[in-house]
Amino acid sequence: MKSFSAIAIAIILPATIAYAPNPVISIAAKGMGLLAPIFKVEALLQAAVLGAISKVEKDDVVAEINELKKTNKALIYTYGLSPFSSEAVNILEGTGYDFTKIELGAEWFLLGGKG
Question: Would you place residue 19 in the very low, low, confident or very high pLDDT band (cuts 50, 70, 90)?
């Protein structure tokens, strides 16, 4: 015979643990730290090139992000070609929690400095 607490756990846990992260993604995520210096240099180069093409005020972008943060309980910026973004969205969807997803296009480099 099961105790009351075992029954309560059996009822509660399936509702709260809706999605387990993909183990392959979890392992790959641990290795991403090794690539951080490369990503940083890439981001600086992209910012320099795109900044020369179109003038985007950093303060305007920061203000827009801060406004989105104020008006959304949960906010995620995703990149459709990233398995990490897909995994994060799957986890959020599994929670049933209301969130806002802002998709960064695969062609982000064509969108100008703000894009």
Answer: low
